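Customer escalation, tier 2.

The customer says the design service returned an amino acid string that "doesn't look like it belongs to this structure." They asked us to rerun it and document both sides in this ticket. The original structure tokens are below, unchanged.
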């Protein structure tokens, strides 16, 4: 089934009528977007408010499932405790700046300008969502680069040189991972042969094992670790180490759950506007 214009018009006039129709649709779309931008801004501001430091903070329970290997609590005050939250806060502020520029500074009737702003806004929101997912590639995700990524003075336990606590983000929660470390075979061999092993002044050497500890390792060796980092070697405090034990525990954070939901909703809305603009302007997403 096909549609035809009656009475017939020339091809040139048909093309002009299509262009005029698209221009009118683009103008309407840009006006509708300006009405929607305050709603997007409000959603981002709500996310920002949930991450703003407010005393006394949020106290979250920490306890491993079906056992009490780890039991305690952690208090999150705004972006303190986890470095990734500071990066998330930075992305939210950048997104708010883009909305302000699209509303007040730039030309709101320029389709190319607004399309570029929407693309940039969508990319920043996606970066913020990646921060919330966590992992080694995000800010604060590499545990071996930090002794402890919070304030050590807030801890009520001594941090032994072979103990590495690390707090990162996962969707809707904080993830505490505690690792016990041992020198890698190469580091141990260098220490035994009297060669110099790099060390940091931030804490005691990991290679200073007592005679009792060495005899225990020889006579009653620990079972081979079965976690996902068992085959990896890390440079921690200037010493090559391996992870002997690894325990993970999550603390559900209602504020992070709300931020994740709101950020996803804003992201979907931005993607929708990008898709409409791309159709009208003949662009690729």
């Amino acid at each position: 089934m096909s549609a035809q214009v009656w009475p017939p018009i020339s091809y040139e006039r048909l093309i002009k009528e299509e262009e005029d129709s698209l221009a009118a649709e683009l103008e309407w779309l840009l006006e509708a977007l300006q009405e929607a931008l305050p709603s997007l801004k409000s959603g981002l501001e709500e996310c920002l408010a949930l991450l703003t430091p407010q005393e006394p903070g949020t106290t979250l329970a920490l306890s491993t499932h079906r056992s009490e290997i780890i039991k305690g609590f952690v208090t999150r005050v705004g972006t303190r405790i986890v470095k990734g939250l500071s990066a998330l806060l930075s992305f939210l502020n950048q997104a708010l700046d883009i909305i302000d520029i699209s509303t007040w500074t730039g030309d709101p009737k320029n389709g190319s300008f607004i399309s570029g702003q929407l693309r940039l806004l969508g990319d920043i929101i996606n970066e913020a969502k990646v921060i919330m997912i966590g992992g080694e590639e995000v800010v604060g995700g590499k545990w071996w680069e930090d002794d402890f990524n919070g304030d050590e003075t807030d801890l009520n336990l001594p941090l032994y040189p072979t103990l590495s606590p690390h707090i990162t983000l996962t969707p809707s929660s904080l993830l505490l991972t505690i690792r016990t470390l041992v020198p890698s075979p190469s580091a141990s061999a260098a220490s035994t042969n009297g060669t110099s092993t790099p060390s940091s002044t931030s804490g005691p050497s990991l290679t200073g094992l007592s005679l009792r500890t060495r005899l225990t390792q020889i006579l009653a060796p620990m079972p081979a670790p079965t976690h996902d980092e068992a085959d990896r070697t890390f440079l921690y405090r200037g010493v090559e180490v391996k992870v002997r034990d690894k325990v993970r525990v999550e603390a559900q954070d209602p504020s992070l759950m709300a931020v994740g939901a709101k950020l996803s909703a804003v992201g979907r809305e931005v993607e929708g506007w990008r898709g409409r603009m791309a159709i009208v302007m003949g662009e690729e997403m």
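Tier 2 assessment: The sequence is consistent with the input. The chain has six helices and six strands. The helical segments are 11-51, 83-105, 111-133, 185-192, 211-219, 254-281. Sent an explanation to the customer and offered a walkthrough call.
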